[in-house]
Amino acid sequence: MHKRQFTSPIILIILLTLIALAWTGPHHPARAQDGNGSGDPGDHTLAYFVPVEGVINDDTPAEDWTFTARADQLVALLVITTGGDLDPVLDLIGPDGVIVARNDDLDSLVRDAGLEALRLPLDGVYTVRVKRYQETGGATAGRYRLTLLPGFARFAREYRFGDSDALWTTPGGDPIPLYQDQLQLRPPEGADEALALPPDPAALDEFYMQADARLFGSTGYTEIGLVFRAQEDQAYRFRINTQGEWTVEYQDAFGRFTLRSWTWNVVLAELGGDPNAVWQIAVLARGDDFTFFVNGVLLGTLTDNRLPEPGGISLLAGWRSGQANRPAVLFDDARITTRLGTTYAGMPLALAAWDSADPMDIVQELADAGQIVPATPLHDLFLFEKNVTAENQETVLELIGSEQAVYGDFLFGGRIAILTNGENNGCGLVYRWQTADGTEDQDGYTLGLAFVDTAGGYGVAQSQDGDLIGNAYDLDPALVGEIATVRLLIAVRGDTVVYYVNGALVMQEALTLEPGRVGVALLNYAASDTTCLWTDLWVWPVE
Question: Strand order of the sheet with strand 496-501?
Fold first, then answer.
């Protein structure tokens, strides 16, 4: 995880009095670097939905892949490290050689890189450059997987309508027949349209959906459509027709209301004149904004806020009432992508039970999420109250629990209040404390520290035999000033420490410290009267 480094003045007191290390300027955590060879030395052309593999190392610090697209298409690109310590950076270069977009990390929790729902500026061939952070000057290497997707970066669903697939149904629950592994949708006698609902209905909010369609049978007037955000008697309806037009409606219990009247489009008109044409109809929904496509060509956009909640999707085929020629529509390759946001798959980003007075609630939530296995049925340590006071510029560390209470993997939580007349003061939790002879007052000890301060910051610092081996710091405006009550939780597991502040995961840092004791810390940057008050301090060993 990459975090902004120590910037608060309180860090000076940590460095000078906590680990006796002179301040030498900002410390940057290790970034990715190095790489290795190319994946396939032959064709480096990308196809939608088809992942490709590559390797980045010293010999090949960057690799290029290409794809062809139209202006205004919305695409997603995702680079995931599958081996090594590669920290990938993604560049998208347009047909004119100009960088369209760049991404290093999807978010602060991961090193994977990606772009979502990016609108392309030009027709032509685009270059996707995958490289490591700092490229030739980098220091990470490894294998990666690159995927090109339409719309968003999470491939959510695919329907190919094979015989083994569960059947789509009418709104009444009747199965819809297949024809040569395609969904055959034809309005019944007396009706002007037919809807097909998927076998695994799910409520979708922000998504991209596309489906291929072609006419079967007669070539009379036909409508092809997608219905989305459907909930009870409400839905949005996007339709195109064989006369070269498209429209969008909002439907509720009172009827249908036109949001975009039938509008002619040259690409639709060309398709309508070709009885063998394949129509790829698509919609992207993002908040209150909707974008509509056919065969990758932008038809238009609109904004409407009447259905902000997630809803279902369905396919549509229609004609005019009383029409003599009634062609069926064959649908195939319906695919959906949804917003990815992050590839992070570790500890929960937020804890529902974070403020519970019973630590078992927090432990159980993490266990239910499959992230921990409690090593004991009860907490190993619990203190109702602990306080430390200092008046001078100093750091005060106090261990808690017995000298035999040495922990490797564990959860450590508590509530902290800072009472001070100073401006830069902090309180924190100490973990994996060790000294050469086991005493508490020896210089050059080894420890980890997670803290909050009155400057509005939170951070972690780790020292090994008196040398700083890791640090990270960030600001949260909600923490500025005197802190009445803040819940801290750290999960120390193997080579990682995960840090929560008021139930939100704020940091995840590498950890090399061996098992040790736990404690508390008061951090006074200046000569101020400061008291750190901890309540409900607890430790729970985990496997």
Answer: 381-390, 530-541, 410-420, 486-493, 496-501, 504-510
Exposed (0-12), middle (13-18) or buried (19+): which is 255, by Cβ within 10 Å? exposed
**Does 145 share its domain with 162?**
no
For residues 400 and 312, membership in a common domain is answered with: no
Question: What is the tens place of the pLDDT at every residue in 496-522?
Answer: 899 999 998 888 888 888 999 999 999
The residues that bridge with 4 in the sheet, in sequence order, are: none
For CA atoms 66, 67, 72, 73, the dihedral sign is: negative
Domain CATH code at residue 364: 2.60.120.560
Residue 96 CA from chain centroid, whole number: 31
In a domain, 38, yes or no: no
82: its two tokens: 């599958």
409 contacts 542 by C-beta, under 8 angstroms: yes
Domain end, chosen from 317, 338, 359, is at: 338
In the three-class reduction of DSSP (H, G, I as helix; E, B as strand; rest coil), residue 2 is classed as coil
Please name every residue paired with 314 in a beta bridge, in sequence order, or none if there are none.
227
Cite the DSSP H helix spans in 287-378: 359-368
> Could you tell me if 60 and 138 are in contact, meaning their C-beta atoms sit under 8 angstroms apart?
no
Q: Which sign does the torsion angle of CA 71, 236, 222, 48 carry?
A: positive
User: Whole-angstrom Cα distance, residue 144 to residue 141?
Assistant: 10
Provide the whole-model pTM: 0.69
Across-strand partners of 249? 237, 258
Which residue segment(s) compose the domain that 145 sits in? 52-153
Residues 139 and 216 in one domain: no
CATH number at residue 145: 2.60.120.380
Output the six-digit token pair for 96: 């004119």
CA distance linking residue 315 with residue 223, whole number of Å: 11
Whether residue 534 lies inside any domain: the answer is yes
Helix, strand, or coil (residue 458): strand
- Backbone phi, then psi, for 69, in 5-degree steps? -150, 170
Instruction: Tell me whether residue 179 is in a domain.
Output: yes
- Contact criterion met (CB below 8 Å) for 207 and 232: no
What amino acid is encoded at 108 in this protein? S
**pLDDT tens string 41-64:** 568 999 999 999 999 999 999 999
Angle (CA) 24-30-36 rounded to 5° is 145
Residues 185 and 329 sit within 8 Å (Cβ to Cβ): yes
State whether 476 and 391 are in the same domain: yes
**Are 513 and 393 contained in the same domain?**
yes
CA–chain centroid gap for 393, Å, is 41
pLDDT in tens, 310-320: 999 999 999 88
Nearest to 40 by CA among 32, 48, 51: 51
Q: Using the 8-state DSSP alphabet, how is residue 105 labeled?
A: -
- In terms of domains, do 316 and 435 share one? no
Q: How many domains does the chain have?
A: 3
Residue 257 β-bridge partners: 250
Q: How many C-beta neighbours within 10 Å does residue 18 have? A: 22
Q: Is there a contact between 281 and 226 (Cβ–Cβ < 8 Å)? A: yes
Same domain for 451 and 525, yes or no, is yes
